[in-house]
Structure formats: structure tokens, C-alpha cells
Specification:
Elements: E1 14-21, E2 24-36, H1 42-45, E3 57-58, E4 67-73, E5 79-82, E6 90-93
Parallel strand pairs: 3-5
Antiparallel strand pairs: 1-2, 1-6, 2-4, 4-5
Length: 99
């Protein structure tokens, strides 16, 4: 795993996190789009979100937690945006490590 502080993950970095739900744990992996500070509306940080169908955004618009906006490409090819808390995100590979 790349040695990057969680609150300094730059856009383009490949990250992963685990979602704990009633159906069991699911690992999500995607690219960081932006950092979203606690209390900020995601649409203010990433205005392009306003142009996406609401079904493509899988999180609350405002949270009390610092978060990353992460683009996850589904097997269908559709990109969904998630906003996991900073504390659960781990770096898989930085953008400078792409081959």
C-alpha cells in the first residue's frame, strides 16, 4: 500500500474500502475525485454532481465526517459516486504509480 496520509489522498488515486451491510461485507474500489470536508455539501465541492442522475450518487450530500468523493466503475460500465469517510479509505495505488 502506498505511504500516503489519509487526509492527503490526491485526486486520481486508486482507493478501496469495505461497506458493512445486512448482506455481508462488500469491498468497493475506485478513484478519488475530491476531498469533502465535514459539513460541506458534496455538490459545492464537485459541481458536476448536479448533472448526474441522483441514483448514481450513493451517499448523503452533507455529512459530519470528512470524506472522499470516489468514482467506482460498475461491471456494467456505469460510474457511481460514493463518499466514504476518510477513516475507512485505504490507498491501493497512487496516480504516479500507474503504468
Amino acid at each position: 500500500m502506498a505511504d500516503v496520509k489519509r487526509h492527503h489522498i490526491v485526486p486520481g488515486t486508486l482507493v478501496r474500502w469495505t461497506i458493512h451491510g445486512m448482506g455481508g461485507d462488500q469491498v468497493r474500489e475506485g478513484r478519488v475525485v475530491a476531498y469533502v470536508p465535514a459539513g460541506r455539501d458534496v455538490r459545492d465541492v464537485y459541481p458536476a454532481l448536479r448533472d448526474l442522475p441522483p441514483s448514481r450518487f450513493r451517499a448523503e450530500l452533507v455529512s459530519q465526517l470528512d470524506r472522499y468523493l470516489v468514482a467506482v466503475q460498475r461491471p456494467s460500465g456505469v460510474v457511481w459516486l460514493y463518499a466514504p469517510p476518510v477513516r475507512v479509505v485505504e490507498v491501493v495505488r497512487g496516480p504516479e504509480e500507474e503504468g
